TIGR00341 family protein (Gallaecimonas xiamenensis 3-C-1), 331 residues
Amino acid sequence: MALRLMTLVVAQDNKDKVQAILDERKVRDCWQEREDGLLLTNLLLNAEQAEPLMDAFSSAFADQDSFKVILVPVEAALPHPEEEDQAPKAELEEEKKAANRVSRDELYEEALSGTKLGRNYLLMVLLSALVAAVGLLRDDIAIIIGAMVIAPLLMPNIALSLATTLGDIKLGKKALWCNAAGLGLGFLLAGAIGFAIKVDPAIPAIAGRTQVALSDLVLALCAGAAGTLAFTAGQAGAVIGVMVAVALMPPLVTAGLLLGSGELALAARAGLLVFTNLVCINLAGVGTFLLQGLGPRHWWQEEKVRKASLRAFAIWVALLLALAAVIGTLL
């Protein structure tokens, strides 16, 4: 069972209010400290308890200047926490929404950190595109997989799915800008290489990324859902397999190389594969987040965000159907 250490900081006169919230829940351990007029409440709890507790604390204390909540993962604790008795029914209903995933706020912070459009991100895009180009031109699968594992474009798309699910415009804009910059930079570099070096479209690694089939839709949807599940479970290692299964950089670089060499029709086919993967990753991401009960913090936002999420989900589905129709005509 994954554990979290949560520290709540509020003014000392809120002790009874804090206790009332905790009395409705069963945490593994709790201890309090007083410092400079502040009450620090430390809680050892299961990962799925974090989200409902943070929501409760936010609703009760968000208007206070001293209010803070700090949440960190716990690698180990001694003595080992014992299995708890059955929790109260109300708490079980709250935890059911966050079952098998980390809290909304942890997901948000992780997604936000993956949308930082800075020098490191741009360098990662350039390096990934360069490695992919070398691997494609040499028809070397090992090198191409190296570019897939770097995968700088995967997290901005997961962040876009999360922003759509939460109705967070700020995160959505950051994710879109990060996506656009990464896709544009990788494509321009590949196009420059294709212009400087005549690319042979018969190279198997390149030719294979100009052939789009309906099975690519299934693969991208499954890989996108698996990647989102791994992300929500906090299993970063499992995302690596998804990077390889539905990588965006190799087909993007293929499109750039072929366009730079004047192979317009083949470049368009490779671009179609890139667009297919983008649509499927986002569609699978939004669908998976919704199925896991992820939503806004406050109840009065739920209806508005739910409608916006379903509208965005419908748009992704429409794009998917359009892609399926286009791919069907190419077969």
About this structure: The chain is about 65% helix and 10% strand.
